Amino acid sequence: MPKWSDFGGIWTTLRDVDVNAIREEAERPIAFACVGHETALADVSRLLSENDDRYPASGPSPLIIMPLAEAATHADRLRGVSLLILAVDARRGLTPAEAAAFGRAEALATPYLVTLVGAHAPGARVEGLPPAAAARAISIADPSALDAADKLANEVLRRLPSELHMAAARRLPGLRAVYARELIGNSSFSNATYALASGLPEQIPILGVPFAAADMIVLTKNQAMLTYRLALAYGAPPEFQARIAEILPVIGGGFLWRQAARSLVGLIPVWGLVPKVSVAYAGTYTTGVAAWRWYERGEVASTDQLRRISSEALAIGRARTAEIIARARPQHTSGESSTSGEGPLDRARAIGSGIWSGVRDRLPRLRRTRDLPGRQRTDVDEPEPQPRPETK
Question: Does residue 146 come out as left (phi exceeding 0), alpha (psi in the -120 to 50 range) or beta?
């Protein structure tokens, strides 16, 4: 566990992080209109709102619950919502009047999701349900199943604009776990991609140190923003410094050593690029998982747990690194060949080697002087002794 005095450098790095935009994103207004059968509405509402997390939902519920029979007379309330959820009890189907009301709600210019509660297969035939709606519907056979909430959350977030995901998770606890997994995975991949991009100039020896320092600063900030987003998504109070102060001891010394590891591995010539990218992914992933457990349940991961998470994250990171580097190389179809036969990595290394060779050629040449009696060896060139002219 690090000492508080060790965090001075981190605070210096984080003090200029702009968190206002993240906080505003978390506090965006959002509303979901849930229209359908009463039994299906109860299940959908419970799956989205059920909460045994450390923090309850932040603010009033964004759900507007409306029986299908009332949709026609309250259409004005359905306009302008972020998402329309049409909840149908697949076991009873739709009457002609309900089907007409369903069609009017579906026709609104609003993103919508059709949820068939009790249906045992995707695209299941439901009495009175329009075929087009049935083709786009999701089926939740058993609302009490362990994966029911995650299945609904995946579909809700897929239909929402990404800038509304954090606000939705902050107000609807049923979305939090899926949002956290996506956020950690995306942030880890982004940091690994950045580590690759910043690692290419580091292959040039005279540029390695400054680029490695900049790399450490950027990745530290990205991890801090990941942690802050998780905190807000899980309903924690929005004070940034308080959230970072409480999470640093939870994450432990790994937060510090991973930064150093990324920097040092990046200075290993050329072949150090792959482990650098893997460590960037694993470090971000481990930080995210530790923060997730803390904000979800107030659970502090032990040293052994952090080590296990890091080991698993490193294995994932190696696989993702191979994907990232493969994408960075030129893609050729069968029978085609590159004019140069080199990818971005090879070209960057060749450029770095050429620059270093040019710089080296312009440096003063150093050679050892010959051993002379009574003289010490030096690394400074001295003029060769010239014979004295003979005097007559």
Answer: alpha
pLDDT of residue 8: 46
Residue 387 is predicted with a pLDDT of 53
pLDDT of residue 272: 53
**Bridge partners, residue 115, by sequence:** 87, 138
Mean pLDDT calculated for residue range 9-21: 62
Task: Give the tens place of pLDDT for each residue, 127-140.
Answer: 888 877 777 789 99
Tokens of 311: 């080991």
pLDDT of residue 346 exceeding 80: no
Q: Which of 84-88, 193-197, 246-250, 387-391 has the lowest mean pLDDT?
A: 387-391
What is the end-to-end Cα distance of the chain in Å, rounded? 84
What is the three-state SS of 42-84?
A: HHHHHHHHCCCCCCCCCCCCCEEEEEHHHCCCCHHHHCCCCEE
Instruction: Answer yes or no: pTM beyond 0.90.
Output: no
Q: Measuring CA to CA, how many Å separate 126 from each of 114, 129, 234?
A: 12, 6, 36
